[in-house]
Amino acid sequence: MQNPADEEKEGxxxxxxxxxxxxxxxxxxxxEDLLLLESGRTSTGDALLALALARRLVRVxxxxxxxxxxxxVTDLDALILRLRQLVIGDRIRADxxxxxxxxxxxxxxxxxxxxxxxxxxxxxxxxPIEADDEPGWFRPTESAEGVSFRLPTVADQFAVIGRPxxxxxxxxxxxxxxxxxxxxxxxxxxxxxxLAPSLSSDLSGVCPECGAEVMVGFxxxxxxxxxxxxxxxxxxxxxxxxxxHYHWTERDILALPHGRRAAYAELARRVEGT
Length: 274
Ligand SMILES: [Zn+2]
Prior knowledge:
- This protein is α+β, with helices and mostly antiparallel strands and 274 residues long.
- Helices cover 47% and strands 19% of the residues.
- The site of zinc ion has 8 residues, from loops.
């Protein structure tokens, strides 16, 4: 229905932060709206959904095809933030109740996705590291203990998700040797965080009423998928209405770009007076 040139025009082009792969993200259509609404609302469900959306909506701008399983979790979460930016906009607004005793005032926390991603740009940490002999692995430049590590991938995350000691299991997969001393493990974790910053982070806000400072946990993947689901919620009504009104098949309706589907649905609604 749409040719790739149009898609590129309304899509977004950017580089994934960790792998630096240049990609083009196309806007979701009805088929992806259904995917959003019909996926399980668990952390595994969200991970599967993020991966499915990435595979369907992202095209590499140059080079080899992407293997999302082998990319870092940061790249997948950055993609979900970019999708939210493309579909809903850059500005994220959340509010929380002030936790100070007897206050309860609403505290507005607002920020831009561009700004958030810039703030979480991968960079070399304080601990000097270099590439290890094995591709994808790193080691500290000055360390006699033979420690090395790699960045957690989407596949690693799937392997440990929902496990009671997920952080330890992740370290076992990504850090060598397995019995690395606690002090070194902490340094390794800091290095990993610098090279592939977690996009679940604490945001701070100040209560306008009592001046209390609050920290709010922001999980980019969970938050953005929830907003994208809310926006997708009309898909069943739209399909029902357009199928009855124009006698189009579900498949054709699901292939329409969101804006066009919404415009037809609006026209049909007006005619049918619903
Ligand atoms: Zn307050």
